[in-house]
């Protein structure tokens, strides 16, 4: 991509632990030191390897147990896209949901409505403004969830397995939408075709970064690791 990112994410010895039911601690992410400034970064690895945890840390949804994490320039607004759009669709009607996501950034209801229409139009969902969320297909719901995130103009997009629930056609469409975004993006994914479009791919295994490089080297490494080479 020739669109350099203006956001740098710096992790300095960032680790993340959780409490276990027997009163102990479990290390989910081992100390990680990393600087990300590419426009498209993909995070791949087996189930439970720590991909979502990394994204949640970058988004500020959870705090590191130790180490420090910084987004630069300071005050960068991240937007988080979940695998399951149900996790972020709040209102029953498409236009209302987008407007709801703007409640903090735009004071006037009329302006929220205008901005909501604008974003739905650009995503080819202009005719869905008054549709019930429940009558949309999974692909349409995922697009509406993305529209809600984009309406707030995030300066860094964190996408957590955004194509997992989509069929082939919706995956292709949604991937195009994601890849066309102006904002830099870090995407955790099992979709290796999506990972192959990134400039940099991080491979995680059991909470450790085990490979970091271009798709041409990182993806084969992950295949070997999975015994699928
Ligand atoms: N808050 C938490 N409490 C307990 N366990 C957690 C918590 N957050 C993450 N984990 C555990 O940490 C491990 C890594 O989780 P994470 O969701 O980051 O993995 P992942 O690589 O995204 O997996 P998947 O591909 O299955 O989505 C998992 O075993 C998960 O159960």
TrEMBL record:
Its EC number is 3.6.3.-. It is an enzyme of class 3 (hydrolase). CDD domains: ABC_cobalt_CbiO_domain1. One of its GO terms (molecular function) is hydrolase activity. Residues 9-228 form the ABC transporter domain. Keywords: ATP-binding, Hydrolase, Nucleotide-binding, Transport. InterPro entries: AAA+_ATPase, ABC_transporter-like_ATP-bd, ABC_transporter-like_CS, ABC_transpr_CbiO/EcfA_su, ECF_ABC_transporter_ATP-bd, P-loop_NTPase. Pfam families: ABC_tran (PF00005). This is Biotin transport system ATP-binding protein. It comes from Nesterenkonia lutea. The lineage of its organism: Bacteria, Bacillati, Actinomycetota, Actinomycetes, Micrococcales.
């Amino acid at each position: 991509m020739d669109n350099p990112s203006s956001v740098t994410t710096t992790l300095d010895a960032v680790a993340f632990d959780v409490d276990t039911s027997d009163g102990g601690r479990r290390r989910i992410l081992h100390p990680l030191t990393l600087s990300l400034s590419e426009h498209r970064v993909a995070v791949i690895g087996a189930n439970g390897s720590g991909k979502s945890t990394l994204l949640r840390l970058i988004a500020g949804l959870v705090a590191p147990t130790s180490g420090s994490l910084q987004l630069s320039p300071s005050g960068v607004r991240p937007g988080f896209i979940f695998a399951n759009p149900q996790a972020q669709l709040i209102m029953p009607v498409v236009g209302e949901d987008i407007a709801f996501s703007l409640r903090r950034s735009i004071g006037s209801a009329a302006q929220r409505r205008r901005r909501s229409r604008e974003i739905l139009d650009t995503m080819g969902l202009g005719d869905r403004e008054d549709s019930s969320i429940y009558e949309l297909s999974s692909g349409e719901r995922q697009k509406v969830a993305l529209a809600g995130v984009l309406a707030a103009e995030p300066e860094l997009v964190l996408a957590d397995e955004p194509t997992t629930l989509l069929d082939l056609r919706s995956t292709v469409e949604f991937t195009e939408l994601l890849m066309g975004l102006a904002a830099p993006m870090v995407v955790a994914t099992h979709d290796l075709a999506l990972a192959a479009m990134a400039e940099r791919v991080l491979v995680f295994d059991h909470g450790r970064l085990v490979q970091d490089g271009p798709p041409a080297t990182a993806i084969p490494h992950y295949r070997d690791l999975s015994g699928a080479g």
